[in-house]
Amino acid sequence: MAPQQRKPHVCRNPDLIRGVGKYSRSKMYHKRGLWAIKAKNGGAFPKHEKKAAAAAPAEKPPKFYPADDVKKPLVNKRKARPTKLRASITPGTVLIILAGRFKGKRVVFLKQLTSGLLLVTGPFKINGVPLRRVNQSYVIATSTKVDISGVNVEKFDDKYFGKKVEKKKKKGEGEFFEAEKEEKNVLPQDKKDDQKSVDAALIKSIEAVPDLKSYLGARFSLKAGMKPHELVF
Amino acid sequence: MPFKRYVEIGRVALVNYGKDYGKLVVIVDVIDQNRALVDAPDMVRGQMNFKRLTLTDIKIDIKRVPNKKTLVAALEAADVKNKWESSSWGRKLIVQKKRASLKDFDRFKIMLAKIKKAGVVRQELSKLKKETTC
C-alpha cells in the first residue's frame, strides 16, 4: 500500500461556530491518543535529539558597505499562468468576436494557447476568418457547439503566430529611397495548408448540422428591441 | 360592469411579484382584507398579499385549507394545467418564456424561417394579384 492511497482524514474536532471547537483541550488530548503515545514511551512524550547544526562555512566580513541603505524588493512567488478560461468556452464552441477586423463574426473555438489567448478559426472558407488568436475578453460564447474531434491543433502555439524576425540589412545610402522590399507580406504556403487541413474536418462536421454553415457565415448584430443583458447566447 | 373573477376558496391565481413570480397558485383561505393563504403543489403553503396575485378564470372545487394531497388531487381532477396551457393567456406566457430562452443559433434559424415564410406569402399574393388584374 503506497502511502498516497490513504483516505483524507475526517476532522477530529468539528467547529460549533468559527473559532469554537466541539471538544475541549482535555478531550482532544484524549482523542488524539497522546496518553497512549506517552504510555508507550514510558511517561514522557518521545523526543528526537536535535541534529547538530551543519557547520556553516566561516563568512568573511564584507569588503564594501554601501553608503545608503537600499531597500530589497519583496519576494514575488507568483507564477504566470494562462488566463482562466470561462466555463462556457469549450473546444468547439461557437464564439462571437466583438472587436477588431472581424467584429460580429461567428467563429469556432479550437483551444487556449499558453499565453491565454484563444485559438480560433472561421473556418476560412465559410466566413473569411483564418486561424487566429483572439482575447477572451473580446468574445461572447454562445451555447452552440461544433464537433471538433477530427481536428488536430497540437502544432499551433504562440510562436506560430509571432511576427517573423528578419535579418537586419546594413542600410546603404542609395537604398534609402528605393522601395527596397517589394514583398507584400505574402502568406507562406505552409500556413495556407495548415488552414486547409484544420478546416477540412471542421467543415464536414459543420455541414452535418442544418443551417450551421449559413449561421457561421452571417455576422451578429444587435437589432431593434434586443436587450443584450436579457439575451441568452 | 360586474366583476367576473372573484377571490374565493379554490380560485387559481398567477403570482405576479416576488420569489414565486409566474407560478400558478390556489387560494386556499382568506386571512384578512389584504392577504390570502395560498398553496401550490411545488411550494410550501403560505400567505400572500392580493396585490401579488392576478386572478384567473380557473376555479377548483376544494374545501377551506385542504391537505396537500387533497389539493393535488383536486388540481388533477379539474385538469388545471391543461386548461391553463390551452387558454390564450397561458399560451402567451409560454411563448414569452420560449422567446426569452432562445439561443443565438435559434434566433438565426427563426430569422431564416421568417424570411422563407414571407417569401412564400409574397409569391401567393403576387399570383393572386396577377389573376385579378388580368
Give the biggest beta sheet of chain A: 5 strands, antiparallel
Q: State the helix count of chain A.
A: 5
Query: Percent of residues of chain A in beta strands?
Result: 5-15%
Number of distinct helices of chain B:
4
State the low-pLDDT regions of chain A, or none.
Answer: none
Helix content of chain A: 10-25%
End-to-end Cα distance of chain A, whole Å, is 50 Å
Largest Cβ-defined interface: A-B, 16 and 9 residues
CATH architecture of the largest domain in chain B: Roll
Shape of chain B: elongated
Secondary-structure content class of chain A = alpha+beta
Shape of chain A: extended
Mean pLDDT of chain B comes to 94
Strand numbers in spatial order across the main sheet of chain B: 4-3-2-1-5
* Structural domain tally of chain B: 2
Quote the CATH topology of the largest domain in chain B.
Answer: SH3 type barrels
* Helix-strand string of chain B: EEEEEHHHH
Q: Mean of the pLDDT scores of chain A?
A: 87
Structure, briefly:
Chain A: It comes from Helianthus annuus (Common sunflower). Chain A is built from 5 helices and 7 strands; from the N terminus they run E-E-H-H-E-E-E-H-E-E-H-H.
Indicate the topology.
The complex is a heterodimer of chains A (233) and B (134).
Chain A: E1 15-17, E2 20-21, H1 25-32, H2 34-40, E3 93-97, E4 106-112, E5 118-121, H3 124-127, E6 132-134, E7 139-145, H4 189-207, H5 212-217
Antiparallel strand pairs in A: 1-2, 3-4, 3-7, 4-5, 5-6
Chain B: E1 11-15, E2 24-30, E3 35-40, E4 43-49, E5 53-59, H1 68-78, H2 80-86, H3 88-100, H4 104-133
Antiparallel strand pairs in B: 1-2, 1-5, 2-3, 3-4
Domain Large ribosomal subunit protein eL14 (chain B): 45-117
GO molecular function (chain B): mRNA binding; RNA binding; structural constituent of ribosome
Pfam families (chain B): Ribosomal_L14e
